[in-house]
Every structure is written in structure tokens, then in C-alpha cells.
Design goal:
By secondary structure, the chain is of the alpha/beta class. The chain has two domains: 382 residues, TIM Barrel, CATH 3.20.20; 330 residues, TIM Barrel, CATH 3.20.20.210. The chain is 43% helix and 13% strand. An eight-stranded parallel sheet has the order 1-14-13-12-11-10-8-2. It has a five-stranded parallel sheet with strand order 19-20-21-22-23. A two-stranded antiparallel ribbon has the order 3-4. α9 links the parallel β10 and β11. The protein binds glutamine and zinc ion. Glutamine binds next to loops.
Length: 757
Amino acid sequence: MATSVIGYPRIGNLRELKFASEKYFRNEINAEQLTKVAKDIRKYNLDVQTKGGIDYIPSGDFSYYDALLDTAVLLGVVPARYKELGLSELDTYFAMARGYQGPKGDVKAFAMKKWFNTNYHYLVPEVEDDVKIELNAKVPYELYSEALSLGVKTVPVTVGPFTFLKLARFVGSKTKEDIAGSVISAYKDLIAGFAKLGAEWVRFDEPYLVRDLNSEDIAFFEQLYKEILGAKCGVKILLQTYFGDIRDCYKNVISLGFDGIGLDLIEGKKTLSLIKENGFPEDKILFAGVVNGKNIWRNNYGKTLAIVSELRECVSDIVIGTSCSLLHVPCTTRSETKLSSDILKHFAFAEEKIDELSELDKILGSSDPESLPEYKANAELHAITRSGADDAVQKKVAALSDKDFTRLPGFAAREKIQKERFNFPLFPTTTIGSFPQTQEVRAKRSAFRKGEIDTAEYESFIEGKIEECIRLQEEIGLDVLVHGEFERNDMVEYFGECLEGYIFTERAWVLSYGTRCVKPPVVWGDIRRAKPMTVRWSKFTQSLTGKPVKGMLTGPVTILNWSFPREDISLKQSALQIALAIREEVLDLEANGISIIQVDEAALREKLPLRRADWHEDYLDWAIPAFRLVHSGLKPETQLHTHMCYSEFSDIIKEIDDMDADVITFEASRSDLTILDTLKENNFRTEVGPGVYDIHSPRIPSKEEIKDAISKMTKRVPIDKLWVNPDCGLKTRENEETVPSLRNLVAAAVEARNENN
Ligand code: GLN
Ligand code: ZN
């Protein structure tokens, strides 16, 4: 048995690449210095993998910003506006990634999108009509040669043509079919180039194959590869897939001339049955993804052994590897200094996953695997009942019944009661929760965390900020106020810290996009609310004003989606546990006189399965009920809001309505308000606040612009169901933009109100 790694984290154990890149962006170091940091990281990564005895080590998994952007550069897909800047190659690259504003011009960056079902974001390449596809493989060749000079013969990897063409944006009138021919030639040239350098394998990543494909897609895929595989130049070609199974095209894929096929046995729930039912060709190697590249728990060798035994019944040549790139997990548990070894021993970050592969290799090669010490130690680890079990919580979840998921009376009756209670004007105005998190706020929070200021000083500072924020909102004339979320570092971490069952790491950073990393908390045990989380601040805020103040919470699905989840219980179980904890907080807020509560589900859409057939069973069937559980115990007169980022939910509009919130606010301004038509077609029942301006940009929207947005809305949504608000929280903005923007928002709402009354 041999071992393979799909990709290794490129950010560096201590985020060296992030800090170096950011210094480079600020002109504090030069290109040479940045290159040196990158080179050191690559060398380190190669060392880890060679020491672990990995047989198929990738090169080209490194990137200064993003792999799809690298592929665009590789193919010469660089829009004119960037070339015209006349920058160095590296700076042209960064201009596409981040935009450029300086003496040579002013251009925006490529759009950014979520990479399949991960928290990583890729840059969307733009294909212009006059694009000239031409191989520019300097970087991948150099990376291959660099590793070779260090004594490692790597597998050069790049995003394959199918995934590239499916994800690229065609900005003119050309289509992917129009440029397929020249793209094929470029890939052929790439293979020929690697053949010259002596590469044995070249790998193409085609994660797009795990999505729903129609017959046209499959035919296009076949067209691309039939040609490319006709020009292998003696190099073996590995087709790599991940993030799911390739149920729509398995047969097509195995009948093409690939030498190796990489399949995901972790997320690909049908992978094993596809192989069993259709067989696997004798002349190909199966690269079996058995070590989870997305989660941080130790592999269970017993289970992996069982999977590989099944595979062995129908596949003769197997290489075991990671299920996807290790980019999606932190670098190493060795960087964690505060967690006890009793906890850390359950974790495997990238470096530890390399060890796992090498142990598995040994185990799988043994005639008596169960007698090996590595196997025994692993079996013992998995036999431990982890601390953090909470019988009471488990019983509560087990005892849930339909009525716990149903708020009574139904929506219409509640709407009537609430209209009477609040007596809001037409188009009530509000914000999404956070107000600008100024340097001053961050500094105070961090001083408090470090123990440099005491609780009393910190809390009185926060109270001061809240009071300022309330006076500002009153003065601007907003109808429903917020406290501003100054006490929160992050909308998930804040709650995680107040919940029993969560664990926080020090340095377990994972790349989100570019140089930005996130540090997801870990769901360790059963989740329980340890103490009231927000009541103190909400109560204080409401005491300052006669206007209603929203209590602000993060919802269970978002909390779970932005954490490393447990694998010993289902996502559903975890979501319900978190929901019960948030429910307690909701009821506590209500009991403390809070009349409106907002439960954010910013990330609800994010983990929707890649395949439509899996949407309900694998996700929506527990995610929506988890949300309903949070608020079903409220009195009818308490108004429950929710907020979602992105309005890309046209296809799950019924389920969103079924969350049974009283009001939902969401991002709509960037998507041109197209979601409104969908709301109308579906007789959306929930009251809505489609964001009237884009908070992701520092631009101040004019009153006219906002009025225009409102009037578009009134054409599609009954006016008594409309709210007026920005499209997301304001924490990333400055006061200088926020105050005039909100003034314009209120002025526009007032005018629209007068015209419609
Ligand atoms: N209430 C949160 C805020 O305003 C929501 C953030 C989000 O949707 N990402 O910051
Ligand atoms: Zn948002």
C-alpha cells in the first residue's frame, strides 16, 4: 500500500505566509523577502510529508492567494484591465486577487465565492471575449523543480479544465465550449512540459464532478479528457475528486484513460457502493481518500481498515490518502500550549494526519494488523468515553416531540397581535446588530482579555458605548434599536465561550481566503448553556430607551456550521443541543422584558449539501427544526427576527419561510433584488427586510438610491410586510460612513412612508 496527500496547508504553522504577504502589501518587505518565506514553508511542508513516508506528495498545492486564480494565470486568462496596469507578474497576480488602487490605475478584484461546501473562498476567473489562452507554466514547473532539487519527486497538481471552465465567469459572449479547444491544448502542453522535467505523474483536480451533473456536463467532461488523455507523453494522469462522490459520472470516469482516480470515501457517501456495483478497472490505481481532510478528529483505524478491506475485494491497486486538501484543517496540534494532552490526543491536524497515513500504511500492510501497537493505541483512544457527556442534555434532546418545534399560535395570528403591540409605522427601520467596531473597542476588549483592565472598567466602557449607540440611533430616528454588539469578538466565538461543551484553540487557524484565516471553535462534548449569555447587556440597553431594543443571538445552525463538529454524534444531535441552549437564552430574554429577539442564521445556506438529492435528508430536515426549536416557546406578542447573509436562497425559499420567524432580514442589494420575485411567487409569509444598501463597501448610499430600492420592493412585497435595513451588520465599517448612510436610510423610509400612507 502507498500513501498520498492531496494538499498541505500553505499558510505556515504560525501563519508566516499571512504576515509576510500583508507586509508585502504594505510595502514593508520586497518580493524577494516574500518569496523566501514562501519557499521556507514549502520546504517545511515537504519535510513533514517525506518524514511521514508519503509516496505521492503534491507540488503546486502552494499558492500566494488561490488555486483557481493560479489556474487562470496558468492558462493566460488575465483580463486586459490588469495587464494594462503594467505591474510585475506577482503584482498583476495580486491585483486580480485584491484589486489595485495606486499610481498605475484603479481596478477591482475578481469576485470571490465559497469553494464548494467549505469555508474557503476562491477567486472567480473572468474570461473575456478576446482572451488568448496560452500556457504560462513557469510557476508550476519551478515548484516541481524546486522540490526535485530538495530530493523529492512530487506529483504536480493543478485544477483541471472541467472545474476551471465550470467555475469561471464568461464576461463577454463567449462560452466555455468556444475556448475548450485552446484550453485542451494548454493542458496538453502542460503535460508535455512536465514530461520533459521527468515527472512520473500529473494530477488534475476536478471537484466539480461531485456536484449534480447533466448529460451535457458529462459529455463536455469526456470531450476535454478524451483529447487530453490522448497526449500523455508517457506521464501518468491522476484524476482527483473530493467533497463528495461522483455518482453521476462514475462509469464515464472509469472508462477514460486515466491512470489513477482519486475518490472521497469520507464525504462521498456513495463512493463505496459505486465501486462495488460498477467495479474498478484493473489497469488503474484507486486513490482512496480515507483520512478526513476537513475535520480535526483522529482517524479510527478499525473503521478505516474495514473500508479498505471492502475496497480490496474489488480493487487491485489502492493508494490511501486524505479525503481532500489538508488546507481545510489547522497545521499542527504541537502549536497548542494550553489544551491538556487528554484533549489534544483526540485531535489530528495536518501534521498529525500525515502520521496517521504512515501508521495506516503500516497497519494495512500487516497480516495481523490488530496486533500492532499503533492499532492498539488507536483502538484504545476510540474506546475512551470522552469527558463532557451530559445526561440531562441527552435526555432533553431524546424527549423532544413535534410540539417543541411548533410555535403557537401560527404566523398570521401572531402577526396581528404584534402589529397591535408595536404599532410600528409603515416600513419600520432597523439595523442588523453590530455597529462599527472601532480600534478603541478592539483595544479595550483585548486589554480585558489579557487582564490589563478589570471587569468593572471593561463593563462600564461597554455600557458607555451602548449608551452612545442608543442615543445615536434615537437621534437618527430608527424604529427598532440594537445594542451594537461591542462586547463580541465574533458572533460564534462569543456564544461558544458561554456554552459548556465548547473548546477553543490558540493557533488552530484555517485559511478562509487570501491571507485571512479563521479559528473555528471545537464542539467537544454535549452542549449546555452554562450561564445567561446576553441578558445583562440587553436588559441594560432596553433600560436606556423607550423604543424596542432587539436581543441579539446567533442561531444553532450557524454556530455549528462555523465550528469543528463532533463525529461521535450526528450533526442533528449537536444542532438540537445548541438549539436547546439558545432557546433557554431566548426565553430568558423574553422573561427580562425584551420584546424583540433576533436569532442570526448567517451561515444557514453555507452547508447546504452539494447535491440536491441530499438537501433534505442530510441537512434541511434537521437544520430548520433546530431553528424552530429555538423560538417555539415564545409568547405570541414577542417578535422573533432572523438574519441571513446572501440571498441565494431562492431554491430553499419554502424552507426559509418554514423557519417560522416573524421577520427576516437578508442581503439583497448586491443581487439586484431578484430574490423579491421569488418571494412574491411563493407567497412568502414572513415579514422581510431585504437589505437596501451594501455594507461591504465603504460607499455612502444616497437617499434616492435607497428610496429606489424601497420602491422596487413595494412592487413585489405587500407593503405591510416590509422592513427597511442595511444588508448586514455594520461592524466592519467606520462611523464616518455608517452615520450618513443610516440617516439616508431613515430619510428614504420616511418619504416612502408618506407616499404610501
Ligand atoms: N448580528 C450580526 C452583526 O450584525 C450579524 C452578522 C452577520 O450576519 N454575519 O454583526
Ligand atoms: Zn449578514
